[in-house]
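#struct-pred

JT: dropping the chains for the assembly here, can someone run the whole complex?
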Amino acid sequence: MRKLTLAAALLGFGLMSGTALAGSAWTGGDDQATNPLACDATPAAAAAKDYDGGSPTGAPDRAGKPIKVVDVPKLIGIGYFNATTKGILDAAKELGNVDAKTDGPTKANIDEQITFIDNYITSGVDGILFAANDPVAIAPVLKKALYKGINVVGYDANSTPDARQWFVNQAQFNGIGKALIDDMAKEIGEEGSFAIVTSTFTTPNQARWIAEMSAYAAACHPKMKWLETVEAQEDNNLSFNQATTLINKYGDELKGIFGMTSVATPASAEAVTQAGKCGKIAVVGLATPNAMKPYVAKDCVKSVVLWNPVDLGYAAMMVLRAVADGTLKPGATSVKAGKLGDLQVINGSEILLGAPYTFTKDNIGQFDF
Amino acid sequence: MSNAATTVPIGRTPFRRFLGGYGQEIVVLLSIAALFAVVGAVNQRFLSDNNINAIFAGNAYIAIAAIGMSMVIVSGHIDVSVGSLIGVIATMAGTLAVSGYPVWIAWVAPILFAIAVNAGVGALIAYTRIPSIVVTLGMLSILKGGLISVTAGAWITNLPAEFMIAQMRPFGIPSAVWFMVGLTVIAALFMRYTDFGRAIYAVGGNIEAARAAGLNPERTVVGVFALHGFFAGIAGILFATQLQVIQSTVPPNLELTVITASVIGGVSILGGTGTVIGSTLAAILFACIGSALIFLNVSAYWLRAVLGLMILATVLADMARRRRAR
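RK: done, full complex below.
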């Protein structure tokens, strides 16, 4: 009886394996239309879309005048938002006419974040920067700020568009896809074979990135060979096991591993390290610098792709100043952002930070998040 | 109620007695052997040293946690909070290690904490008679919520090299494998040959009979949970030291994976029967299946489906065996 049932289970397992062998497109991508960037650094043409942000009512003329700005991130006291704060303060110092400070909850808690913003509206500020803990729940308090004539600009995590004026978008899917593929091609060559470790095939962001990577690789690095995509949830240990199995399965054929999550990338790097394959198998992926420092220091990992949070804070502050000055108006196609140059307006009321940032041995030490 | 691991059916040959006592363990072992044979035939690299090491080390911490879980289930209880406890232990150990404490403190203190917490849980269950699933569900929320509140989601990085015990390889074999094998053997001997080990089966098989025989079931349950804390503690340390990063979140469904290892390893969910050898073999089987799925190009999603099928098959077999024994 017991052996029969187990035999049946194993038989079913065998059948399943037969059906899943087919398939040529990159597994793990979604079916939505892709928009691969040009192979060189040409930015994509912005699709025309009307301004869909909000507007402050009865805002005083702030052009060129000193303004008081508060930044309320998701939470304070962690490296990531310390870095955005640094960018905001850098920009304020450079501008010379902004009194900026960061204040916010010590936990990523939307209720506390709302309370902080509400208190600053009452105490009187000219501008609010935010990174929302929840796009919908934060909307009423931001609308209240707009109603009181305060300029509101978001970064990192958006609210519903009509609750703020502009949002600084740190990275688009096609930009991340291009950066990852270009970095991998640089490390393993135009004919290298690679595999992908992702969270699950249906996780929206990862599926979008993989689809864009596939489209960009087909256009710009057609000879690179995708081997397979494995799922590892957001589980450290599973990511490590999956990456190790990939290394064991493909042997010398495997030249590179993409980590699609900030969990999968360090775990894949650890798998390569423990397999003694540093320098033979490249790991390229999305990750935060702190988790990757040991591998970058040992030259096991050369490229960690993300965005630069210091630049993100800097751009948000510059955008807020431009809005207060009236130089950034609905319908604009770009905005001047100090040392970052002209940033492109996308999706109606968003400003694209630019190409993603690649952390390398030379710069990773400057970041702590 | 028969006690498959220990009572001796009369009138059978020693070989059949052995099969009767370790039936499920043998089935799991044969499944592992079958997987190695089939997948190894498809792709030789499945049988490489590296891959075999990876399979045995990959789930070692689950196997070790399942030793304690098997004891808890044999005693007639369950613990659904073990995944959260492992997450808390990993974070405690990592925090101590990066704060500059000697590594032995970073290893030992969290294990003592786990023993204390679980002894408390065991006492609550034994003396208030609240069902263990209720108490441990509460514990799950407390530990998980507490962990997120204290860490605020921050990861622990920059761990000292000497802290990474799971990365050490005495005699070329990952230390996690040594721990898994050593603890399984010790626990198996302990459960079979010591008075306390026998008491766990007796309490789980029939608590009133155990009491009538002069055992103290309450004390046994507290002891079982404390032991379970010890094994969960070691599992947590191995989990924490496998990679250079400790996440502030608990692996999803870790408690279910641990319970599944016990059940598929032949521990009856009704209590009273089963061995830790079975649960360790089952944990190895899971790692084996997970690796095989990649070698055969099958989505890892099927791992869940296959495990589900195996649970149903095992429980059905257990019920059939009980009916036959009656």
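JT: nice. The longest strand of chain A covers residues 225-231. The two ends of chain A are 56 Å apart (CA to CA).
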